[in-house]
Every structure is written in structure tokens, then in C-alpha cells.
Amino acid sequence: DVQLQASGGGLVPAGGSLKLSCKVSGFTMDDYGIGWFRQAPGKEREGVSCIMRDNGTTNYGDSVKGRFTISSDKAENMVYLQMNNLKPEDTAVYYCNAEKAREGSWWGQGTQVTVSS
Q1: Whole-Å CA distances, 108 to 66, 97, 112
Q2: Using an 8 Å Cβ cutoff, are 71 and 80 in contact?
Q3: Model confidence over 16-50: pLDDT tens digits?
Q4: Which of 13, 33, 61, 83 could be cross-linked to 53 through a Cys-Cys bond (beta carbons 3.0 to 4.6 Å apart)?
Q5: Between vectors from CA 116 to CA 23 and to CA 16, what angle results, nearest 5°?
């Protein structure tokens, strides 16, 4: 079974950093697009960053470009999201996601990130 487990959230002051981790299992990372999403209270879930399946290209949402970095360690089945210069508007529950065309999309449980002003 495809499983994803996110961790690393917490409370940080504005300008601080956090590194989220997502442990993946049950699939080969090369075969899936893997990404991070977030959902703030009262708002829809939005894409933060992803690693494309075909060529490993990374993409970022406009609001996090230059501040967040997605990476992966295939040997350890881990995906990371390094978040720097955090802002209060980054406060949300962050989710990792794996997706494969024509097969489906899988979500891990969220990890709360709270940025104080």
C-alpha cells in the first residue's frame, strides 16, 4: 500500500525556518510525482511544491518561490521541504502527496506549521 507520513511541523517566529519530512513507502519514488500541499483555516488546499515524475523537475507556488526548497532522498524514501524566511501567511497544515497518472493520488496525514508574527 502507498503510504506517506509527514512530520517536522511546529511553531516558529516569522523569519524562521522549518524542515518538513515525508516518509514514503509502498511505491517506487521514480514512478510518482511527489509534492507538498497546504491548507490554512477557511481556505482551500493549495499546492506548495512538487517533484515531477518524468524528469525530476521541481515546481513551486508563487508565494513560496525563493523561500522553500523541495528535495528527495530515494535511498531513504524521504521527501523534504525546507522552508526559510517563514511568514505568518505560511501557517497551515502541510500534507505530502504522491500521484501517478491513471492510478491515483495518495495523501499523508498533515503536519501543522504555525508562524507567529
Answers
A1: 25, 6, 13
A2: yes
A3: 999 999 999 998 888 899 999 999 999 999 999 99
A4: 33
A5: 60
